[in-house]
Design brief:
The chain is α/β, with parallel strands linked by helices. The protein is 46% helix and 20% strand. The strands form five sheets. It has an eight-stranded mixed beta barrel with strand order 17-18-20-21-22-23-24-25, surrounded by five helices. It has a five-stranded antiparallel beta sheet with strand order 2-1-5-4-3. A five-stranded mixed beta sheet has the order 11-12-10-15-16, with helices on both faces.
Length: 797
């Protein structure tokens, strides 16, 4: 047998033995895991079912107690007003979806009923009529072949005079709901004279009918004759199916691995002598005049010596040509491409991938083989990174130009040595670099930029002296019909965006196009408006939904433009955000709002005001100091000021935003999350935020009328806010029905056009006349603000 065959067979036998042992162990483990998972699902399903019954019990108890405590209802019971009692029972049952509501006397005689065939005067069947059943205790009752979960509450006046029994039907719909929650099936059974009789049964979608099942029995009621048992089941065959598919997949992978390994083994064995063949072919190409062929062969034997000699001969010829090309296309300091070569490489890449409108092939730039890369697949996206070295001028001024040159060479070496080598890397000018690369998918752009920062951010060592480096990187993706100049310009715009945001990395977006002439004019007009009183404060009242009392107002900006009229915030706030002018507008708004709130407070008519702050404001390290100073100057209690921020305001730098929010909360001002539900904040981050209030976005509130599904969304948002100990505000209330629904959901505060649209100061004072306000207990607080970084020391009087 040939050596090539013996090597390949040995490798295949070893691999086959390892794969067989691994597959056997995995198969045994999968079967055990499937049975254990089925039993775990039964335990979880039992717990979910029990808690569902507990939740039904609490809901039934609350609803029954609400009816029993109603004065008018007790009067109707005393008067035996059957029509009124039946209507009240029907309404209360419909409010929570109860299937059965029955009013009985203390001895079990039916006085009124809803959802039952029983008529007044009949005896109420089941365990409910037993006087030994504790009040509000959950019970199961079987009537007309249906199972009901029932709670009984006494009607007192003041002693018990009657009982209200209210229940949910455990029918096919409830069984399907349980099945969808737990993925389990099984009947609800009742003991009859002839034995157990299943009344309700379901099986999860897709579960096969099988006798190989795991079963868990839950006794729901054993009072009297109505013994009810729920049987939860999980098909073991279905539980094993995913593991069986996994085993089959592993077998397939093992088989393919054996085939691939066999091919690789024979290929390796066949190519043991390949170096000699390659060297022979290379010599033939050099003899024919092709000096670009690679001859590197690191071997300690005679073949390595021969290859090394031929390579030296080849380099001597190439050096003369390279020295000429290097001056035209290479940066002599760093060895990277210069701007001309990089532009040519970028044009070639764009043409190769079909992203430019040009049809002619650009001329060869003459770059050496260090800058050449294989042509990538056409569908892979092209990315350009523009890299600026921060504070390079200071390095030259304080450490000398020699050190600055060494720093530039260090960065160049790092660009050349990237693990994922780019298509091209260049030094454009001074401290500016550029990198061109192909990504697997467009979503890899940000991770690629972060990897660039990590590779370049380590300190540079010059003469054993570490020099800290920081970079600003702008990223841009090539789009269809994008030229090289346009793509570089987009990367430049991304760098400028990163600098304005004081971030190391930014990605080009369509909104980063250079400002048009009218936008630049708008910026000048906005500055003029701020300095000449054209901006005005409007106020939209906020009311307690439960009492209708006024509890505050939100401060909104309006611009009385001399030629365009009254402008809403949407006409100028987005532009202010893009140009970095929003922070100055926020300071102006805070100063006027706090001053106005202080005037009301000194006049004995305190009104809490809410002011919006943006993401850029949270990056202001002196925001807490400025607010503390304004509160002290105007002697306004901090409790009368609320700061509203959107969820997106703390996504980019959550830790930094949380530190600022903690500092603001220390001042005593209230914090509110605006547009709650439209951002992307995680629940863990929300729980850490020192806020006291969340505002449900107007889009959810206004959808209550047109889309009933939004009712569940709003209810969840209110419950989540209350569970976190937060007050809940609903904005955008425009109809009385929306207000009533929010009041029923226990929303705390509302604002919207139903109550008042945003009003100027004079109209707000008129609107407030005669309206009851929520009492405010607030004490003025003075702050001593010391510029100690992020530290603010407080002195309260």
């Amino acid at each position: 047998m040939a050596l090539r065959t013996r090597i390949a067979v040995t490798f295949l036998l070893l691999l086959g033995a390892v794969l067989a042992a691994a597959l056997t162990a995995v198969s045994i483990a999968n079967r055990s895991n499937a049975e254990r998972e089925a039993r775990r699902q039964l335990e979880v399903g039992a717990l979910v079912f029990t808690r569902l019954l507990d939740s039904n019990q609490r809901l039934l108890t609350q609803a029954a107690r609400a009816v029993a405590d109603d004065y008018g209802f007790r009067e109707a019971v005393a008067a035996r007003d059957t029509a009124t009692l039946a209507s009240a029972l029907e309404n209360s049952g419909a409010r929570i979806g109860a299937a059965l509501v029955v009013l009985t006397s203390l001895d079990g005689e039916v006085l009124a009923a809803s959802g039952s065939h029983l008529s007044p005067g009949a005896r109420f069947p089941g365990a409910i009529r037993h006087t030994h059943a504790s009040e509000q205790a959950p019970q199961m009752m079987v009537e007309d072949g249906r199972i009901y979960q029932v709670v009984t509450v006494a009607v007192r006046s003041p002693l018990p005079v009657a009982r209200i029994s209210m229940g949910f039907a455990l029918d096919e719909s409830a069984a399907r709901e349980l099945s969808s929650l737990t993925g389990l099936g099984g009947p609800l059974s009742v003991r009859a004279t002839s034995g157990w009789q299943p009344l309700v049964s379901t099986r999860p979608n897709g579960e096969s009918a099988s006798t190989d099942v795991a079963v868990r029995r839950l006794t729901l009621s054993d009072i009297g004759h109505d013994e009810v048992v729920a049987t939860l089941s999980r098909s073991l065959a279905d539980a094993r199916a995913p593991f069986a598919r996994l085993t089959n997949t592993l077998i397939l992978i093992g088989s393919l691995s054996m085939v691939g390994f066999a091919w690789a083994a024979f290929w390796i064995a066949r190519n043991i002598t390949q170096p000699l063949q390659d060297l022979t072919r290379s010599v033939d190409r050099i003899r024919a005049g092709d000096y670009e062929v690679a001859l590197a062969m690191h071997r300690p034997d005679e073949l390595g010596v021969l290859a090394d000699g031929l390579e030296h001969m080849q380099r001597a010829v190439q050096l003369r040509d390279r020295s000429i090309r290097r001056l035209a296309y290479e940066d002599t300091l760093t060895g990277l491409m210069n701007r001309t070569a990089f532009g040519g490489a970028l044009e070639s890449a764009l043409e190769r991938t079909g992203r430019t409108g040009r049809h002619e092939r650009p001329e060869r730039t003459g770059r050496d083989e260090r800058h050449e890369r294989p042509e990538p697949p056409h569908e892979r996206p092209l990315a350009v990174a523009r890299i600026n070295l921060d504070r390079f001028r200071r390095i030259n001024e304080h450490l000398g130009y020699a050190v600055g040159d060494e720093v530039l060479r260090t960065i160049a070496e790092r660009l050349k040595g990237l693990a994922a080598a780019p298509l091209a890397a260049a030094r454009l000018a001074g401290d500016q670099f550029a990198v061109l690369a192909e990504l697997e998918v467009a979503a890899d752009l940000a991770p690629w930029g972060a990897a660039l920062l990590d590779a370049l951010a380590a300190p540079a060592s010059v003469d054993s002296q570490p020099i800290d480096l920081s970079m600003t990187v702008g990223l841009a993706l090539a789009a269809k019909d994008t030229g090289a100049d346009a793509l570089l310009q987009r990367a430049d715009l991304a760098v400028e965006r990163a600098r304005r945001a004081k971030r190391p990395l930014a990605i080009y977006e369509d909104g980063l196009a250079p400002a048009a002439r009218d936008q630049l004019s708008l910026l000048g007009e906005l500055r003029h408006a701020l300095e000449h009183g054209e901006l005005q404060l409007y106020f939209q009242p906020k009311l307690e939904l439960a009492t209708g009392r006024v509890c505050g107002a939100e401060v909104l900006l309006r611009w009385q433009h001399p030629t365009r009229g009254l402008l809403a915030p949407a006409a100028f706030i987005p532009f202010a955000e893009q140009t970095g002018f929003l922070r100055r507008m926020t300071r102006w708004t805070l100063e006027r709002a706090i001053g106005q709130a202080a005037q009301w407070y000194r006049a004995g008519r305190p009104l809490a005001l809410a002011v919006n702050i943006g993401a850029d404001d949270l990056t202001d390290e002196r925001l807490d100091s400025r607010i503390a100073q304004l509160l002290t100057v105007h002697q306004l209690p901090p409790a009368l000021l609320t700061l509203e921020l959107t969820e997106s305001g703390f996504i980019d730098d959550a830790e930094r935003a949380l530190r600022m929010l903690d500092a603001l909360r220390t001042l005593g001002v209230k914090l509110s999350i605006d547009d709650f539900g439209t951002g992307y904040s995680s629940l863990s981050l929300l729980a850490r935020m020192p806020v006291q209030e969340v505002k449900i976005d107007r889009s959810f509130v206004q959808a209550l009328e047109s889309d009933p599904e939004f009712l569940a969304v709003v209810r969840s948002a209110i419950d989540m806010g209350h569970n976190l100990g937060l007050a809940v505000v609903a904005e955008g209330i425009e109809t009385a029905s929306s207000a009533e629904r929010l009041r029923a959901l226990h929303c705390d505060v509302g604002q919207g056009y139903l109550y008042a649209q945003p009003l100027p100061l004079a109209e707000l004072d008129q609107w407030l006349l005669g309206r009851e306000r929520v009492p405010v207990i607030a004490v003025p607080v003075s702050f001593r603000v010391e510029d100690l970084g992020d530290t603010v020391s407080l002195a309260t009087y």
